[in-house]
Amino acid sequence: MWNKRNTVLLSVLLALSASAFVEELDDSFMERRGADDIWLIKFYAPWCSFCKQLDPVWHQIGSELRSLGSPVNVGKSDATASTGLAKEFKVRGYPAILMLKKDVKYNYSGPRTKDGILDFANRVGGPLVRSLSSLQLFQHAMNRHDVMFVYVGATSQLKGNYTSAAEELIVHTFFFSSSRDVLPKVVSLSTLPAVVVFKDGTYFTFDEELDGDLKSWINRERFPNYLRIDSYTLYAMGESGKLVVLALVEEKTPCEESVRYKGLVEKVSADYREFYSRNFYFGFMEGSDYINGLVMGEVVVPSFIVVNLSSDGYFLPPVAVKTERHLLDFLNGVLDGSIQFQGGNSIYQRARRFIYDIKVTLTPVFSQTPLLGCFLVGFLIAIVAVFFYFCCRNRPTVSDDDDDDHTKRSNKKSD
């Protein structure tokens, strides 16, 4: 009995100590905050189940940032009560995670995990551009980051553009600067200043004539050329403007065919990087649930698909992809337009996707509780019927128009 009571008391104390690092914010927050304060804020609604699931993780984040001596303050706000603050941050859904740093607001759109949010907080909460003053620091940064952008040289217009790009894209990736003598000797730069991206075991420099706008180039190159892709990553890749070549494989125990598909995509991404890297990212995705929603059907696993998340479109190989040559022909066909583009975000496609989403949602309901499914469908049909009824009722008929004209003519005759 004593041990049980002590355990409960200890749990309460731990919960209270964790909550001490997360401040509840209301509409007065913007007026009383310090000008240089950095805040990581979660907007929630009391009825939101995802918000409740995130709550213990949020308190862990507050505790860890405080223990590390981070300058980032952690808060949360009930968006249904503090509507002014929610409007200030343009909150549209729950939970919404944002960071406020010197009047600049940054939105977090990554996975709702402790590691993902902490990485976001440390990245945005620190300097926009981090200086690498020694070869040891450079090597340490290389070991920590799959993709690393580095400005090399003295102050210039290019550095100003680089800093401006960092202010907007810091939510996605880290930015560094260094002098030429800090870089490894194998790195050869023809001119300075320069912006260099290190990834996939190699590096290449920004060329304004070939690559266009610096910020757009950074946005395109902020992912490794080949990687494991989840739904969050795939959605973010849509902002890069590149197409994504995917091998869809089993989630837990990949079969021999899945392993071959993954290896084929990885090999093509490495051997033909210079030819395809401007147009494609490569990777593999476990399972096909997300892609099923995109194509509005069941995609066979394992299989290949090329997706364009900027337009919700996709390409499917016209024949089975069994060899490297088959995959190359498929990619070349996507580029030259001989492979049919499917999907898209037209009104017709949006309507189809809406119907598909309803079908996917209701199918398990019908299979498990048929009565509830019938009620939901009947309720939806009733709403649509009432809507059309009122639309038709308020619409003027031809006879009404004739009566109005007849009345006007009679009044005019009387006059």
UniProtKB/TrEMBL annotation:
SUPFAM superfamilies on file: Thioredoxin-like
Chief location: endoplasmic reticulum
Recorded GO MF terms: protein disulfide isomerase activity
Coiled coil: none
Cited Pfam families: Thioredoxin (PF00085), Thioredoxin_6 (PF13848)
PROSITE patterns, sorted: THIOREDOXIN_2 (PS51352)
Membrane-topology annotation of the record: Single-pass membrane protein
Superkingdom of source: Eukaryota
Broad class of enzyme this protein falls into: isomerase
UniProtKB keywords: Disulfide bond, Endoplasmic reticulum, Glycoprotein, Isomerase, Membrane, Redox-active center, Signal, Transmembrane, Transmembrane helix
Compartments it resides in: Endoplasmic reticulum membrane
Enzyme Commission code: 5.3.4.1
Catalytic reaction equation(s): Catalyzes the rearrangement of -S-S- bonds in proteins
A GO cellular component entry from the record: endoplasmic reticulum membrane
Keyword Nucleotide-binding annotated: no
Cited function: Probable disulfide isomerase, which participates in the folding of proteins containing disulfide bonds. May act as a dithiol oxidase. Acts as a regulator of endoplasmic reticulum-mitochondria contact sites via its ability to regulate redox signals.
Name of the protein in its database record: protein disulfide-isomerase
